[in-house]
Amino acid sequence: MKKLVLACILALVVPGAEAIDFGSLVGKAIDTGRQLQEANHEFTRDEEIALGDGLAAGFLGAAPLRKDPELQRYVNRVGKWLALHSGRPDLPWTFGVVDTETVNAFAMPGGTVLITYGLVRRLSSESELAGALAHEIAHVVKKHQLQAIQSDRSSQAFADLGKGLASEAIARRGNDPVGLKSWGASAGVELLKNGVFLRPLDRSMEYEADKLGVVIAARSGYDPYGLVAVLEMLAQTKSDGSGLSVLDTHPAPADRLAELEPLMPAVEREVSKPQQLEARFRKVVAP
Amino acid sequence: MRYRALAILLLAALAAVARADEQAFTNRATELKERAAPDSATLASLPENSSVKVLARGGGWTRVEAGGKSGWVNVFHLRFPATVEASSSSSSGLASLGSALGFGAKTEQARLATTGIRGLSTEDVKNASPDPEALARMQSYRADRPAAERFAREAKLAEAHVEDPTAKGSAK
User: Fold this and answer.
1) Which of B2, B131, B137, B163 should we substitute to test contact with A (largest number of A Cβ atoms within 10 Å)?
2) Residue B156 sits at the chain A interface (C-beta within 8 Å)
3) CA-CA to A221 of 20 to 30 Å: which in A6, A45, A179, B104?
4) Pairing mode, if any, of strands A94-98 and A112-116?
């Protein structure tokens, strides 16, 4: 709280600052900062998107976007089609392939999904890609990452979120009056730096994302066994020892397969002519 | 153009063969079926831990060769040999420290053995400088609803109504 007050005082002595209505801006920022520190705070859609953008920008600083526009557009079409069959079709869904050999995919709050080229090149069909992306979409729909961030009371992350918002709010004007974008950027970087965002999610969240992911893929017309095939492939893949491999951050593939098995007969009954689309996938991803 | 399409198909077929040529074991007593369907004829009974060679995958069934016969086994009745050697989550405290400092011999060896290229580490992400330009470029590749719907129609992706199994009762 001391830091928050200090940030406000510092902002007040910035030259040229008199043009801003500090009374309402600072009050709003402090209110939001306080709310964000509460574990049961319900993030607004805009807060969620701003935070996700900040996390994604930070992540892209470590793993560059793969320079392959055809692949990037392809993954966005598959991802958007899937997202339209999720519980949150209207988020600004964005999918990106990042250039690293590490095998994993990451969902950011607000609808950004990053998938590594190390994972993409190990897949063999569009239905497998759909399975992997749908698992990440399910995390966003269920707000798993937001819950994990909020439940992390041991870290300074939440206090920093409030502090960041308060100071950025004062620095910003124009079309972003409460500084949401710059708050998102600083909060995202903070959550990457202190490692909160990189920690594995609860196992139950991963199993839930697998189940909902299979359902989203099936609703979209894909072979619901796409994710099952990905998990089989992962069962044979070695971790690269980076700490960020899917094998480091998720339950063992065999456990995930065992959790999915009881769901499959019911899903299979609902789909007609499910597609794997190997040829379309191979036009974009060389074997 | 026809040749290109043919070449792509050929490559895809080769890739399928390459990936399918794997060893697996049955994780329970199961049956080798003639076709990929539960009501198809049983070619052989396979006890738990039978060794099979994976030939191809299709939906909920995996085509395998077992005891000189080839047929189909339920996809969930197979387990694959664990090949994970050194991951940071299973390594000792000392090795983790080494890994964090960037010179964990065991970890480095595992990285090279797997890919030959260094992967992304937790430290890389923690220490990265944000790249807002890359974020903007990524967002420029977004697909809108009409583009996604056109893309689905091209492949005759048929929508289906499937209930969300995680929506009922507990959130598990």
Assistant:
1) B131
2) yes
3) A45
4) parallel
**pLDDT in tens for each of the 287 residues of chain A?**
444 443 443 333 333 433 445 455 555 555 555 555 555 567 889 989 999 999 999 999 999 999 999 999 999 999 999 999 999 999 999 999 999 999 999 999 999 999 999 999 999 999 999 999 999 999 999 999 988 887 775 445 555 555 555 555 545 545 565 677 777 888 888 888 888 888 889 999 999 999 999 999 999 999 999 999 999 989 888 777 777 888 888 999 999 999 999 999 999 999 989 999 999 999 999 98
What is the Cα–Cα distance from A79 to A286, expressed in whole angstroms? 19
Does residue B58 sit in the same domain as residue B102? Answer: no
Query: ipTM for the complex?
Result: 0.83
- Two tokens at B69? 């016969």
- Which residues in chain B (20-49) have CB-CB distances under 8 A to chain A? 22
So where are chain A's domains?
2-37+153-193, 64-145+200-284
> Is residue B75 domain-shared with residue B97, that is, in the same domain?
no
Please provide the DSSP assignment of B146-166 as one string. Answer: HHHHHHHHHTTPPP-----TT
Domain match, B13 and B74 both = yes
Whether the CB of B6 is below 8 Å from some CB of chain A: the reply is no
Q: Note down the domain range covering B62.
A: 9-79
Give B141→chain A minimum CA distance, Å: 5
B148/A92 touch (CB, cutoff 8 Å), yes or no:
no
Indicate whether B13 and B68 sit together in one domain: yes
Q: Which of A76, A241, A279 sits opposite B87 (nearest CB)?
A: A241
DSSP 8-state code for residue B41: P
